[in-house]
Design goal:
Layout (H helix, E strand, L loop, with lengths): L5 E7 L4 H11 L5 E8 L5 H8 L5 E2 L8 H14 L4 E4 L16 E5 L14 H9 L4 E8 L9 E8 L6 H24 L3 E4 L2 E4 L2
Parallel strand pairs: 1-2, 1-4, 2-3, 4-5
Antiparallel strand pairs: 5-6, 6-7, 8-9
Length: 208
């Protein structure tokens, strides 16, 4: 492999387990990438500590420290450009920000359900798994998609499924879904790095 490593930014708001999984894939040689910057929307979360453990000093950019969403978004965008980021990977990022034109179809998110079901504002973490179980779904899973400026509305890249059993707790379903997330996100990043993703009329086409 002679391609230059993909420079990725990790955006997080919580524990950072998705970031750790991605870094493990990089170290194992499964992903031709490097983490160029880590951005956290909170300074008091486990993901900040985990980023430091990985050798990445995170940059804290909090929505409440900015007058409006535009200045918040501009702070993020400037940091991405300054670090020459090729792909933004939202990893438990809970803040809406306005994606600039030069990063359209260059920002990914992973959602712990099979979109378009169980998505939208307020549908994150255990809220999603509780809703899936309440609806009596027999299958759940995860979705990696390109981000737009609407919650969970971007073109779908990769989906993986898992069973949802009668009697599951949200924690039990979350653990099963996370196993699939650990496979789906690296797969989507690899497809991007290999230049195999093309968005046509709001749908991702994957060349094989």
């Amino acid at each position: 492999m002679n391609r230059k490593p993909l420079r990725i930014a990790i955006l997080l708001s919580g524990g950072g387990t998705t970031m750790v999984n991605i870094q493990q894939q990089i170290r194992a040689g499964s992903l031709n990438a490097q983490i160029g910057v880590v951005i956290s929307s909170r300074g008091d979360v486990k993901g900040v500590e985990r980023a430091r453990d990985l050798g990445c000093e995170p940059v804290i950019i909090r929505r409440k420290d900015h007058q409006d969403i535009e200045s918040f978004s501009d702070a993020i965008s400037r940091l991405l450009r300054d670090n020459k980021i090729d792909l933004v990977v939202q990893a438990g990022w809970l803040c809406l920000w306005h994606i600039p034109a030069d990063y359209v179809n260059r920002v990914m998110n992973i959602h712990p359900a099979l979109l378009p079901s169980f998505g939208g504002q307020g549908m994150w973490g255990h809220h999603v798994h509780e809703a899936v179980l309440k609806a009596g779904c027999k299958i759940s899973g995860c979705t990696v998609h390109f981000c737009t400026n609407e919650y969970d509305k971007g073109p779908i890249i990769v989906q993986r499924s898992c069973p949802a059993y009668d009697g599951d707790s949200p924690d039990e379903l979350a653990a099963r879904v996370f196993e699939q997330e650990c496979l789906a996100y690296p797969e989507a990043i690899k497809l991007f790095e290999q230049g195999k993703l093309k968005v046509e009329s709001g749908i991702v086409r994957i060349s094989r």
